[in-house]
TrEMBL record:
It comes from Pseudanabaena yagii GIHE-NHR1. NCBIfam families: 3a0106s01 (TIGR00968). This is Sulfate ABC transporter ATP-binding protein. It is a peripheral membrane protein. Keywords: ATP-binding, Nucleotide-binding, Sulfate transport, Translocase, Transport. It is found in: Cell inner membrane. CDD domains: ABC_CysA_sulfate_importer. InterPro entries: AAA+_ATPase, ABC_SmlMolc_Importer, ABC_transporter-like_ATP-bd, ABC_transporter-like_CS, Mo/tungstate-bd_C_term_dom, P-loop_NTPase, Sulph_transpt1, Transp-assoc_OB_typ1. Residues 3-233 form the ABC transporter domain. GO terms for molecular function: ATP binding.
Length: 341
């Protein structure tokens, strides 16, 4: 196992930042820590790194108990949101820095740096200074610098957080491809669910210092363990079953609770004709989202919900505001009463 976190607790004063965390990261895999700001992601990463010590619990790195090991002895590579490149050094010198410190022979350093420049697709830019690169290029250099010393574990804390949306998207895809090449055990912190889905093998969803769920992107999306996970992973309608109209929806899963009904906007089908299982609704508002259309619907008892449909389906139905339609959920979920809001 690459990384094992066992019963880790961490408080800052009275504030519980990590609440009994247990986690295993397989050797060579890429795991995302996903959660809102303040959920404890960075604290967990820092505890794994040895930058923060846990109040209780243990950290194992490549099978060895590292709980009391100094950060410098853990053989960890880091990439943070804010470029920590040395401004007065060239890209080549930045990448080779860790190897210089370790007194690797000059010729070997030069070879390794060339290899890394190629890996990050910046061959030819090695003599530039960080200020002569774009933000995205600088983050690639940070990654190369972290990988130079062949760390056993790579930790990335919102590495693309400061970049604009387009570059961020490009770098995600790039990071995934890179990881498929180098296979270093990696933990990637993000608050962006799409980023976590695209990049990682496993997602660890965190909330208020606790792990809510661990699973593949598909597992977390298809079988969210808690209302929090379901709401965090994308937009969702939370409908009270005490609404007379909502109670007419046919459950598509075995209902494991009597609490609210959770339905994703994309899982609401809109029809023009009634069926034995559909429920009447009125279209209140139509919002064009580009390739999707969002319809705000109102049930007869005033309950409001949101549906998303493809532009193609929208045109086919020729929907108009105030039109009467019939809706049917394709997928509903409920959670045990402990969780109801
Ligand atoms: P995230 O990375 O998910 O946004 P953090 O792990 O940074 O969350 O922080 C979790 C909580 O712990 C936050 O409420 C934060 O204010 C608190 N916290 C983090 N580091 C410290 C610290 N060194 N001292 C006091 N509180 C801290
Ligand atoms: Mg953070």
């Amino acid at each position: 196992m690459g990384i094992v976190v066992e019963n880790v607790n961490k408080k800052f004063g009275d504030y519980v930042a990590l609440d009994n965390i247990n986690l295993e990261v397989k050797t060579g895999s890429l795991v995302a820590l996903l959660g809102p700001s303040g959920s404890g992601k960075s604290t967990l990463l820092r505890v794994i790194a040895g930058l923060e010590s846990p109040d209780s619990g243990k950290i194992f790195l490549t099978g060895k108990d590292a709980t009391d090991q100094d950060v410098r002895d853990r053989n960890i590579g880091f990439v943070f949101q804010h470029y920590a490149l040395f401004k007065h050094m060239t890209i080549r010198q930045n990448i080779g820095f860790g190897l210089e410190v370790r007194k690797m022979p000059k010729a070997k350093i030069a070879d390794r740096v060339e290899e890394l420049l190629e890996l990050i697709q910046l061959k030819g830019l090695g003599n530039r200074y960080p200020s002569q690169l774009s933000g995205g290029q600088r983050q690639r250099v940070s990654l190369a610098r972290a990988l130079a010393v062949q760390p056993s574990v790579l930790l990335l804390d919102e590495p693309f957080g400061a970049l604009d949306a387009k570059v961020r998207k490009e770098l995600r895809a790039w990071l995934r491809r890179l990881h498929d090449e180098v296979h270093v055990t990696s933990v990637f912190v993000t608050h962006d669910q799409e980023e976590a889905m695209e990049v990682s093998d496993q997602i660890v969803v965190m909330n208020q210092g606790k792990i809510e769920q661990i699973g593949t992107p598909a597992e977390v999306y298809d079988n969210p363990a808690t209302p929090f996970v379901m709401s965090f992973i994308g937009p969702v309608n939370v409908l009270p079953v005490k609404s007379e109209q909502v109670s007419k929806f046919q459950p598509t899963h075995e209902q494991n609770g009597k609490g609210d009904l959770y339905i994703r906007p994309r899982d609401i089908l809109i029809e023009l004709e009634a069926t034995t299982t559909s429920v009447a609704a009125r279209i209140n508002r139509i919002i064009n989202l580009g390739w999707e259309v969002q319809a705000e619907l109102v049930l007869d008892d005033g309950q409001v919900l949101t549906a998303h449909l493809t532009r193609e389906r929208f045109n086919e139905l020729d929907l108009q505001p105030q039109q009467k339609v019939y809706i049917e959920p394709k997928d509903t979920k409920s959670f045990s009463l402990d969780y109801s809001i």
